[in-house]
Specification:
CATH architecture of the domain at 15-102 and 179-252: 3-Layer(aba) Sandwich
Number of helices: 8
Number of strands: 9
Order of helices and strands: EHEEHEEHHHEHEHEEH
Structural class: alpha/beta
Distance between the termini: 15 Å
CATH topology of the domain at 15-102 and 179-252: Rossmann fold
């Protein structure tokens, strides 16, 4: 498959995300071990053998200010890894990433929540993790609760919430302040259709205000409907990138 270069590669003055020759390598065991005991014995005997697995291999893309940009590909293609590199959750083995502006990574909604704390307490906890002051969280609290649609459960411990309720609260907190860049990993696959549409409306509003949104999704219809451009990853490499519908057409022919 042919790898194409993005328009005005890495030199566009309005670009806010620049991924330059990024590769991510993991060291994995060559053989499967029965458990921690066997691992410990082999480690002591220095008999462990590893192989290199390249989750990403020489990825270069540019995303412009105010753009809705899609990332498509099969499971294990490197989509989530690329998003985590952008979010600085993972450091690239090679290359570099430049992110210009406040970034909101919506990778695992509710990942910073504590199951024994109430919804209210988790809003303050997660808001602090996102860099908001106590005063800023207080100012946004009512709006966060209203958007998440869990008013009746806000004083209940998070362990009593459904997965959809946790995701709604996580999205409401993460988007309580308009970011410059949003990194969205399958967020719109969580919850009911009505709430998914509500999330889309908020993201569209952010985009209209100049925010840049990078979306990882398995929904090709959503990529065509939302994104101006897209990239198709296959085995950690760029298979194609360019205008969203063209990339989706190429990728869809391989399914």
């Amino acid at each position: 498959m042919m790898q194409t270069k993005p328009d005005s590669f890495i030199n566009s003055e309005d670009s806010v995300i620049r991924v330059e020759g990024v590769s991510v390598r993991y060291r994995v065991l060559r053989e499967q071990l029965s458990g921690i005991k066997e691992y410990a014995i082999r480690w002591l005997q220095r008999r462990l053998q590893y192989r290199d697995f390249w989750a990403l291999n020489d990825i270069s893309i540019e995303v412009r200010r105010g753009e809705f940009f899609g990332i498509v590909g099969r499971n294990g293609a490197g989509k989530s890894t690329l998003l985590k590199v952008m979010a600085r959750v993972i450091r690239p083995t090679l290359g570099r990433v430049v992110m210009l502006g406040r970034t909101a990574p919506l990778l695992e909604l509710g990942a910073g929540f504590h199951p024994e704390l109430t919804g209210r307490e988790n809003i303050f906890l997660n808001g602090a993790l996102l860099g908001l002051s106590h005063t800023e969280i207080v100012q946004r609290f009512e709006e966060i609760v209203a958007f998440s649609e869990i008013v009746e459960f806000i004083e209940a411990p998070l362990r009593t919430y459904s997965t959809g309720m946790v995701a709604r609260l996580g999205f409401a907190v993460a988007t309580s302040v308009r970011p410059d860049i949003m990194l969205v990993d399958e967020v719109l696959s969580v919850g009911d259709a009505q709430f998914q549409e509500k999330c889309l409306v908020r993201m569209r509003a952010f985009q209209e205000q100049g925010a840049t949104i990078v979306l990882v999704t398995h929904s090709m219809e959503r990529v065509v409907a939302l994104c101006e451009r897209a990239i198709w990853l296959d085995g950690g490499k760029v298979a194609a990138q360019g205008e969203a519908s063209a990339v989706v057409n190429q990728y869809s022919r391989t399914l």
